[in-house]
Amino acid sequence: MEKVRWGVIGSANIAKKSVIPGIQQSETGEVVAIASRNKEKAEEAAKELSIPIAYGSYEELLNDSTIEAVYIPLPNHLHKEWTIRAAEAGKHVLCEKPAALNTEEVKEMEAACEKAGVVFAEAFMYRYHPRYAMVREVMESGRIGEIRGIHGTFTFNNAEDSSNVRYKKEWGGGSLYDVGVYPISAARMLLRQEPQAATVHAFFSDEHDGVDMMASGLLEFKNGVAMTFDCGMWAAFRNTLEIVGTEGRIEVPSAFVAHQSEEDHFYVMTNDGKSEVEVPKLNQYALQADALGRTIRGSEPLPYPVSDAVLNMKVLDACLRSAEQRQRIEIK
């Protein structure tokens, strides 16, 4: 397969530390250009990551006809604009999560990508790691009985970095946007259904432009199954997932961060005891790039198409409304 030629719009840490190295390690892609609004910043990142071309504007990169796909790690409020502009330039798009600021924006992005005939994917890298197929296999085998509930966490403490884009409300800051989307998307993925309602309580910090620095939520699924979660940017680090059944449970100690080590393994607890399930030591960012690469080359459909990003945003919208209004929100 001829490698997909990627360009990167922005030089955020997630791009430099994780996604670009992942594409470079993938079987299907290569990073040929990076753009920043500051040419020196782009050149510095290009040198650091051995990227051939550095552009001093996003427009220049989109005008490069040799680039087939772009990765967008820009602040959340810029996702819609640059996804649409990339689609209109004929580029396939991998966009950082959350896809946008609300469902209507994601629908506009979906329409633009469909009109242009390009692939769009929201960058939830953890979903491409085979361990989640393995977790679902245990769930569906009946080994832990009927599923009664899921609990997920994703918290970290970065509160002292007051200039961080995560703490700008108009830019889509806040813990629900930044890390709450992970357990929310995981529950939808594992249960293969959409929640019917959301109830969320949050701590909004005046020191951080009024964004939610911690949130705890309940998502209601059918048959009485619930997903509880908490997310935060002013709390000790955790990223866990627990699936509880009538006869046992599954624990994923590092649910969204993959270390490519034994830390990525998960555990199954039943009446027969606790067993460790070993998973392959793989780079989930490379796996994400390969999934897109195969779709772009037409060899297989994308596992999580743009319609999934729309549905995930509907849940996130409800969670934010619930936290702001202090009430239960039904999800239509």
From TrEMBL:
<feature type="domain" description="GFO/IDH/MocA-like oxidoreductase">
    <location>
        <begin position="132"/>
        <end position="251"/>
    </location>
</feature>
<dbReference type="GO" id="GO:0000166">
    <property type="term" value="F:nucleotide binding"/>
</dbReference>
<dbReference type="GO" id="GO:0016491">
    <property type="term" value="F:oxidoreductase activity"/>
</dbReference>
<dbReference type="InterPro" id="IPR055170">
    <property type="entry name" value="GFO_IDH_MocA-like_dom"/>
</dbReference>
<feature type="domain" description="Gfo/Idh/MocA-like oxidoreductase N-terminal">
    <location>
        <begin position="4"/>
        <end position="122"/>
    </location>
</feature>
<dbReference type="InterPro" id="IPR000683">
    <property type="entry name" value="Gfo/Idh/MocA-like_OxRdtase_N"/>
</dbReference>
<dbReference type="InterPro" id="IPR036291">
    <property type="entry name" value="NAD(P)-bd_dom_sf"/>
</dbReference>
<dbReference type="Pfam" id="PF22725">
    <property type="entry name" value="GFO_IDH_MocA_C3"/>
</dbReference>
<protein>
    <submittedName>
        <fullName>Oxidoreductase</fullName>
    </submittedName>
</protein>
<comment type="similarity">
    <text>Belongs to the Gfo/Idh/MocA family.</text>
</comment>
<dbReference type="InterPro" id="IPR050984">
    <property type="entry name" value="Gfo/Idh/MocA_domain"/>
</dbReference>
<dbReference type="Pfam" id="PF01408">
    <property type="entry name" value="GFO_IDH_MocA"/>
</dbReference>
<keyword id="KW-0560">Oxidoreductase</keyword>
